[in-house]
């Protein structure tokens, strides 16, 4: 708490009797000075004597009446009576003190320190430790005021701290606290806890005095003067200025202090007008919430806010009015969060965790306004508050920035949908809308009252034989058990409200009535579908009652029912505890649990909870609009399933699973696993996976029926299957053109994949089941990545190290892999190479015939590049041959298929496959020649010089120089090197081609040089080729080290003369090109270039003269570049 050292002002004025007729009457108590211990009063005596009538009466009065009302009611109150009322007015239970001093009430009455180190730091735990260490001293109770000192022992880092603590109380509630420690927090500090617990645990050791005004009434004037003067003397530095000021005002006739009768007394208890509630520091609540919100979910702020919400629920359960008060403070801070306006302005959505906090806020307000004992005046105040918040522009919408097409919760769905044609014309529903609507609900219905207040309320105990709620259902089922027909989420909100406000018995009774109603409705739906099955299947109708799902609903109806029943089930197993009844009286557990006779023979509350969850999860419901609403459906389903998985299945539960599974399969449009499925219904994959795993050990055929039925995902079908129209007749008129985007489709598909994987694992070794599962996968899964994952899963399961490979499952894996290949053949997929490699591995495991098969039909599975570079290459590798233990005949057959594939691919895509085809066909002369011819045919049209040079080099490497020469000349015809491309990657290929031609002989070199002159315009490259050709005689180094004895080729004759002239011409052209845009920083580089040019010029017979003329021309043409020409003259004259 924000504990201030100043004492709180007195709440009411006290004066002598007879001082004024309007003053309180009968204030004199008479007798001696007030004192005595609690032990003397008998209230805390540990004897077993019967309690006195005085104590019984005083305790009741102390609980319910403000002390002023007691004083006004009786002219004179005997001092012993006053003492007992004052004594009993202090809180007697540690539970509330714990609630106001810690986030959790783990210790409650026990007072033992928690094992968790974080828990020991809670103020409540620390307060207990201080109390048990004897750190509480000087405890004094004066009237309705308790004071004392609490000593905080010294630590290594902190000195000893003595805190003065005072506590005001009224009607068994602490109404004000102050402590000298100065700590600021929402909760009471440890020192306040220590003092309060001292009074609870050791009342007999606390000095008790009547209110100070009573003591003063007994003094005469001299005693009063002595009292005041001694008080001033003892505390003169603190109170003297105040004392003098008060004296001046009292002596002034017209002062304000003389206009009122009596004087304030901080120890005199509560005024009639005071609200009776526990002390809550509103300022600190607001500050803390504001701080948590400003942290934006970091530093555990989300967790802290959730703990505050839990504290509100705890207060509601204790029927503490501060619950609503605290929630109001929290809501004001949430509504003031500056991020709301920013997000609305930017059009962005709030974070998921923050969104969930808003959901909890709305749910808590729903609980508060549904308080069964709430006064209409208080509800009106809350309604005004909620409407004010609801009208603010930035108030979050219920479904996360999307309009909601769901009806008002106070009406049953079908009645509203008749007029709900245009959702866009209705205002958006906010997080407060449901709470506002719930303000119209009441608890006055006679049938409802009897359900929640009577354990034995059955048809035989009443004369009501008629139907209720417009004939939508009977008040009782065939067994005479009560039913409650109301919009299911609304009815469950009532259950949540009863639980939240501390009425567990009543909540349980209503929950059982609702569940019995759901079970009866389920049976009626099944009968209805069976009687109209042919007609409905023909028309493909889907019931409109599926428009609003219970799982993922903002009010979480199924979760509420499940929790209510499970809590009772756990108590039942633990032996039972006391219950609070509807009047607030604590009662011991009866021989039968509340409404236990409304269970079937041998059934438990846990079994009923499980059945309820199965009913809700199996309901066919339309996928809601908006990302958040769709994510909430998935999250809520997973939460429910997680709770179900904690329940250990016994024979009773297995029977329930069987019963519900059969219903789900046969219930038509009412079930998400029925024969009629609306195209946009929420898929059942996750739920079916749980059902499958649960039923498999007990009823495998039923488990497979459920799982196979659940594999459907019609929203991805281009056309709805037979009996499953995408826009059923019943819905078209209600929701026109309703095709929302499925934001969670990726998650849904992954869940579908998980279901299929679970079935594949379970079906291992059963060929027929595997075939059925495979057909379902191929029919219903539309994502290549998920089918690939299933293929991999099947492969892993089939090839587990601890057993022989399961060939049937391997074939399923291969079949799925082939489907992936076909699906991704014409689309871009970054995992494609991985998929192809994996498929070859899988086919290898299946056997040689599988490899042969995929090569025979390669064009439907692979691109030509994949088929040659991955598939055929892997098949021909030694690793594959060894892995398959192939004999020579099998090897040759496989190699023949690979060569055929390679040639087909080379024909289809010679640019990318020709080299691979040649490599694969090396060992077969005919195939190799065929591949070479394919290259020649493609060279003139579709192949680039890079591809041709690569194949040409391969040919030389394999010992075919003339073929390499042929391909190199073909490549040269495609090449074009400009004057400035002296770093082009093809230069090495050109040099290699010329070297190859030179090595083959004069004729080959003479044939290639014209091609070089035509294709290459770069002077440095041409000069490099020219020098290489002049170093050795053509044909000098040929194959098999055969040498020519010829002479070096002359530069004055063809073909080198042609090359020399082209090189000189290239230097001249390049020089002029460079001089056009040359800058001074390139001058030195240019001079070096001219030096290389001179070397080439000088190779000609008249080269010196040509170069001199060339330099003179440059000087004349570029004489404006004086500095450059000066450098030219210095170097070349």
UniProtKB/TrEMBL annotation:
<protein>
    <recommendedName>
        <fullName>ZSWIM4-8 C-terminal domain-containing protein</fullName>
    </recommendedName>
</protein>
<dbReference type="InterPro" id="IPR048370">
    <property type="entry name" value="ZSWIM4-8_C"/>
</dbReference>
<dbReference type="GO" id="GO:0008270">
    <property type="term" value="F:zinc ion binding"/>
</dbReference>
<keyword id="KW-0862">Zinc</keyword>
<keyword id="KW-0863">Zinc-finger</keyword>
<dbReference type="Pfam" id="PF21055">
    <property type="entry name" value="ZSWIM4-8_C"/>
</dbReference>
<dbReference type="GO" id="GO:0031462">
    <property type="term" value="C:Cul2-RING ubiquitin ligase complex"/>
</dbReference>
<keyword id="KW-0479">Metal-binding</keyword>
<feature type="domain" description="ZSWIM4-8 C-terminal">
    <location>
        <begin position="947"/>
        <end position="1124"/>
    </location>
</feature>
């Amino acid at each position: 708490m924000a504990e201030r050292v100043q004492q709180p002002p007195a709440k009411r004025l006290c004066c002598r009797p007879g001082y004024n007729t309007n003053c309180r009457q009968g204030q004199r108590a008479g007798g001696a000075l007030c004192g005595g211990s609690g032990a003397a009063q008998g209230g805390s005596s540990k004897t077993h004597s019967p309690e006195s009538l005085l104590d019984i009466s005083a305790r009741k009065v102390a609980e319910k009446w403000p002390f002023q009302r007691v004083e006004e009611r009786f002219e004179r109150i005997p001092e012993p009576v006053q003492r007992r009322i004052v004594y009993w007015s202090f809180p007697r239970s540690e539970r509330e003190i714990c609630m106001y001093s810690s986030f959790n009430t783990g210790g409650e009455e026990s007072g033992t320190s928690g094992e968790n180190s974080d828990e020991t730091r809670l103020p409540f735990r620390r307060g207990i430790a201080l109390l048990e260490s004897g750190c509480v001293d000087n405890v004094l109770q004066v009237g309705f005021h308790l004071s004392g000192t609490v000593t905080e022992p010294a630590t290594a880092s902190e000195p000893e701290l003595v805190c003065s603590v005072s506590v005001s109380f009224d009607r068994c509630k602490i109404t004000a606290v102050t402590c000298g420690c100065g700590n600021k927090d929402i909760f009471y500090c440890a020192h306040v806890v220590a003092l309060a617990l001292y009074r609870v645990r050791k009342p007999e050791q606390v000095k008790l005095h009547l209110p100070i005004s009573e003591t003063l009434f007994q003094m005469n004037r001299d005693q009063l003067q002595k009292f005041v003067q001694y008080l001033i003397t003892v505390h003169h530095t603190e109170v003297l200025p105040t004392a003098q000021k008060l004296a001046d005002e009292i002596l002034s006739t017209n002062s304000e202090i003389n206009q009122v009768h009596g004087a304030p007394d901080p120890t005199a208890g509560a005024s009639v007008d005071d609200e009776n509630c526990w002390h809550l520091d509103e300022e600190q609540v607001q500050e803390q919430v504001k701080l948590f919100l400003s942290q934006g979910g970091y530093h555990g702020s989300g967790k802290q806010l959730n703990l505050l919400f839990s504290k509100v629920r705890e207060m509601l359960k204790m029927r503490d009015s501060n619950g609503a008060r605290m929630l109001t403070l929290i809501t004001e801070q949430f509504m003031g969060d500056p991020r709301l306006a920013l997000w609305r302005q930017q059009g962005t959505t709030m974070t998921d965790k923050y969104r969930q906090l808003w959901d909890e806020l709305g749910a808590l307000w729903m609980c508060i306004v549904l308080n069964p004992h709430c006064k209409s005046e208080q509800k009106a105040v809350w309604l005004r508050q909620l409407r004010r918040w609801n009208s603010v522009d930035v108030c979050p919408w219920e479904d996360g920035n999307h309009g909601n097409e769901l009806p008002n919760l106070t009406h049953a769905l079908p009645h509203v949908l008749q007029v709900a044609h245009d959702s866009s014309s209705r205002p958006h529903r906010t997080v407060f809308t449901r709470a506002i609507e719930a303000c119209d609900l009441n608890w006055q219905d006679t049938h409802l009252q009897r359900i929640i207040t009577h354990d034995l309320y059955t048809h035989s105990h009443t004369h009501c034989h008629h139907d209720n709620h417009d004939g939508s259902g009977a008040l009782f089922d065939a067994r005479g058990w009560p039913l409650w027909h109301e919009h299911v989420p609304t009815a469950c909100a009532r259950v949540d409200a009863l639980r939240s406000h501390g009425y567990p018995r009543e909540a349980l009774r209503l929950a059982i009535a609702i569940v019995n109603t759901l079970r009866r409705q389920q049976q009626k739906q099944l009968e209805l579908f069976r009687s109209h099955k042919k007609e409905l299947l023909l028309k493909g109708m889907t019931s409109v009652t599926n428009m609003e799902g219970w799982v993922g609903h903002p009010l979480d109806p199924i979760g509420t029912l499940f929790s209510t029943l499970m809590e009772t089930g756990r108590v039942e197993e633990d032996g039972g505890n006391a219950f609070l009844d509807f009047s607030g009286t604590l009662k011991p557990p009866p021989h039968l649990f509340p409404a236990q006779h409304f269970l079937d023979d041998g059934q438990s509350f846990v079994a009923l909870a499980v059945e309820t969850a199965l009913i809700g999860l199996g309901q066919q419901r339309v996928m809601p609009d908006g990302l958040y609403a769709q994510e909430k459906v998935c999250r809520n389903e997973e939460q429910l399933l997680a709770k179900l998985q904690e329940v250990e299945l016994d024979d009773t539960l297995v029977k329930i699973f069987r019963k519900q599974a059969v219903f789900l399969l046969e219930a038509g449009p009412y079930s998400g696993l029925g024969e009629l499925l609306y195209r946009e219904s929420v898929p059942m994959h996750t739920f079916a996976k749980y059902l499958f795993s649960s039923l498999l050990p007990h009823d495998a055929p039923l488990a497979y029926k459920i799982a196979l039925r659940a594999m459907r995902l019609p929203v991805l079908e281009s056309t709805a299957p037979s009996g499953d129209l995408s826009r059923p007749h019943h819905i078209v008129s209600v929701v026109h053109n309703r095709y929302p985007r499925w934001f969670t489709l990726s998650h849904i598909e992954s869940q579908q994949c998980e279901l299929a994987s679970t079935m594949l694992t379970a079906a291992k070794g059963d060929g027929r089941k595997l075939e059925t599962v495979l057909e379902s996968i191929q029919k219903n899964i539309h994502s290549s990545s998920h089918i690939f994952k299933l293929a991999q899963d099947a492969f892993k399961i089939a090839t587990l190290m601890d057993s022989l490979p399961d060939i049937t499952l391997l074939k399923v894996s291969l079949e799925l892999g082939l489907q992936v290949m076909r699906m991704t053949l014409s689309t871009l997929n970054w995992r494609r190479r991985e998929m192809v490699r994996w498929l070859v591995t899988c086919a290898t495991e299946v056997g040689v015939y599988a490899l042969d098969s995929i090569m025979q039909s390669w064009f439907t599975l692979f691109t030509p590049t994949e088929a040659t570079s991955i598939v055929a290459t892997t098949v021909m590798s030694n690793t594959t041959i060894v892995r398959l233990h192939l004999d020579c005949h099998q090897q040759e057959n496989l190699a023949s298929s690979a060569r055929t594939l390679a040639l087909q691919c080379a024909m289809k895509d010679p640019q990318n496959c020709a080299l691979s085809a040649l490599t694969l066909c090396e060992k077969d002369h005919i195939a190799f020649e065929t591949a070479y011819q394919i290259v020649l045919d493609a060279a003139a049209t579709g192949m680039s010089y890079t591809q041709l040079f690569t194949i040409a080099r391969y040919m030389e490497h394999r010992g075919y120089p003339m073929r390499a020469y042929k391909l190199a000349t073909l490549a040269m015809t495609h090449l074009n090197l400009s004057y400035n491309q002296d770093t082009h990657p093809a230069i090495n290929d050109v040099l290699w081609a010329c070297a190859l031609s030179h090595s083959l002989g004069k004729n080959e070199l003479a044939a290639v040089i014209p091609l070089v002159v035509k294709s290459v315009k770069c002077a440095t490259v041409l000069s490099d080729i020219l020098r290489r050709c002049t170093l050795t005689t053509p044909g000098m180094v040929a194959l098999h080290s055969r040498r020519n004895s010829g002479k070096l080729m002359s530069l004055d004759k063809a073909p080198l003369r042609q090359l020399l002239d082209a090189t000189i011409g290239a230097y001249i052209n390049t020089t002029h090109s460079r001089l056009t845009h040359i800058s001074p920083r390139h001058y030195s580089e240019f001079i070096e270039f001219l030096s290389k040019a001179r070397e080439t010029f000088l190779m000609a017979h008249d080269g010196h003269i040509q170069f001199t003329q060339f330099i003179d021309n440059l000087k004349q043409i570029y004489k404006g570049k004086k500095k450059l020409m000066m450098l030219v003259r210095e170097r070349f004259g």
